[in-house]
């Protein structure tokens, strides 16, 4: 996640040593998820929960690529439009997108109109389909789960890359994927629950069942 922190309202308590905010509901969250309702709901219910199906992994890989250089909130707000524009991220359908679809997507104000990222999503759909012959995208991504997960106390301690994300990036590039750099792949691993970078003390820490 790369969204800029937002100052919490006066009725919430911050803990400087952990970068956590305890809300009126008594739950501790990182600053980025403490005040904005959409980000708070995403943090509470989705981020870091395990995703193992091909479509789900492909969607998150695609959205992480679109997020590069932008805030995650921007992408999250546009996610319904992305899903509509990219056929709910069905890899088979997206793999068949042609130049008319690229033009359609570049004219769609509801999404991020970046031609390189749009073309990369189509490229990655084709790579995802091809990867089925060798176990599939989800199995490949999850095969890079590390032996241990980070245990950050502060936002500054949350890593943005890891040896596993570097290795995953290389493996995906070898398979024909684009926009899969190590930082983007680390964010993907966080989103999918492959690593748990919830701050120690957060109400979400250890709730995925992967790193209990």
From TrEMBL:
Gene3D superfamilies in the cross-refs: Hypothetical protein, domain 2 (1.10.340.30)
Domain of life: Bacteria
InterPro entries: Adenine_glyco, DNA-3mA_glycosylase, DNA_glycosylase
Matches recorded under PANTHER family: DNA-3-METHYLADENINE GLYCOSYLASE 1, DNA-3-METHYLADENINE GLYCOSYLASE I
Protein name: DNA-3-methyladenine glycosylase I
């Amino acid at each position: 996640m790369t969204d800029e922190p937002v100052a919490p309202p006066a009725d919430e308590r911050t803990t400087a040593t952990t970068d956590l905010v305890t809300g009126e509901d008594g739950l501790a969250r990182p600053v980025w998820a403490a005040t904005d309702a959409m980000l708070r709901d995403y943090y509470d219910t989705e981020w870091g929960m395990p995703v193992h199906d091909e479509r789900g992994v492909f969607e998150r890989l695609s959205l992480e690529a679109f997020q590069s250089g932008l805030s995650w909130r921007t992408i999250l707000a546009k996610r319904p439009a992305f899903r509509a524009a990219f056929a709910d991220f069905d890899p088979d359908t997206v793999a068949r997108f042609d130049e008319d679809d690229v033009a359609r997507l570049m004219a769609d104000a509801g999404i991020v109109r970046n031609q390189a990222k749009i073309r990369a999503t189509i490229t990655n759909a084709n790579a995802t389909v091809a990867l089925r012959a060798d176990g599939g995208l989800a199995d490949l991504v999850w095969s890079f789960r590390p032996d241990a997960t980070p245990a950050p106390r502060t936002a500054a301690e949350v890593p943005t890359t890891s040896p596993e994300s570097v290795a995953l990036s290389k493996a995906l590039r070898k398979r024909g994927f684009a926009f899969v750099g190590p930082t983007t792949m680390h964010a993907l691993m966080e989103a999918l629950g492959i690593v748990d970078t919830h701050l120690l003390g957060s109400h979400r820490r250890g709730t995925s069942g992967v790193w209990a």
